[in-house]
């Protein structure tokens, strides 16, 4: 399996190199040269199998012959052994035909654990064999940083620098990063937005001197291994509600678009997905794009679902590349225009291809609040505001007449203030995280300036 850049100006690489690089040297994102395929019989065979076994099967398709199937199986068993629910991603029915996939049973109580726990073991395996140490730089709108810190803390061959927008994530999200005491972890509160953090990370990756000096890598959803790991729960959830005998639709709370794009890949691999609803809060760049065909940055609005307070969805580039028939020159042109002007028009043929799969729905703050209390009253389920955005979007779309799975991306206890304000109920942290508020924090504050943060990363990595 070889990987190519969405911008067409980087040489093809293998799975290991794509994972360790994160971002392609031409600024594009890696995707496989071809999408692996699964037959209906192979998909049906996932029914009832342990999650880690399904994961090993799917990840092996993307790793090819670079990592043995036995090693991948061992990594998957270890990664998903850290989850507190035996099913790893269990389903809960909320209405006739509609289910919630609970993606928050990992160590940091968010869906990012599903990929990050596996990614840490992939890095250990590869870097250990190469006798190499890397520096991971990640931007987080709340959950990626906590999952990355939890997965990589204390590991001898990886250093982690997590950037988060100061004052714009929940206290619980922040503490999952900043209470790590291990010396290989550094956390930075950036005086700006998540989009500022994400832009700084991209600029750091384009600085070849820095990349080489600290052996820079990224574990944001720009890293294709993250996408590969997220594909798994589309298959396990779908077969649990009747696939492949009948099609399934998904509703996904969307910020950086990695989770929703993983569903698109699952469909390209053969999973019968009828529709993917990309649910956004007031930061509706994706909802607007799927409605009118213009990808245009707006002002960042700060909401009760902060992990989605994004106006630049990195993984949309991967979908664009697919829908312009893998034209790297066109993809590079479009996303350079986005940097320079803040937007571009999606070509008509590409827009039609997107609309065959995706529906974009924006949900207001009032609708999010009403959905949290209504879901509790009607089903007894306490959901976080990001999940509420997706449930509200589901209610705003066509009537459910086939299985619909909502991805629940975070435990409600990660957003206690918002959940309490909406429902009057304070969600409790699970036992393993109950003392989070008592742990001392450790982080630095820096301006949203790329040169300042690049100098910080260099000093931390080379100390």
Structural class: alpha/beta
What fraction strand? Answer: 15-25%
Q: Under CATH, the topology is which?
A: Rossmann fold
The oligomeric state is: single chain
Give the N-terminus to C-terminus distance in angstroms: 37 Å
* Radius of gyration over all CA atoms, rounded: 20 Å
The total domain count is 1
Q: Would you identify the regions where 5 or more consecutive residues have pLDDT less than 50?
A: none
Query: How many strands in all?
Result: 16
Put simply, the count of helices is 19
Summed over residues and divided by their number, the pLDDT gives a mean of 95
CATH architectural label = 3-Layer(aba) Sandwich
In the sheet with the most strands, the strands line up as: 4-5-15-10-11-14
Percent range of helical residues = 40-55%
Provide an overview of this structure.
With 463 residues, the protein is α/β, with parallel strands linked by helices. The chain has a single domain, classed as Rossmann fold (3-Layer(aba) Sandwich), CATH 3.40.50.1100. It is 45% helix and 16% strand. It contains 19 helices and 16 strands. The strands form four sheets. A six-stranded mixed β-sheet has the order 4-5-15-10-11-14, with helices on both faces. β10 (248-253), α11 and β11 form a beta-alpha-beta unit. The longest helix has 19 residues, at 112-130. The two termini are 37 Å apart. 57% of the residues are buried. The model has no long low-confidence stretch (mean pLDDT 95).
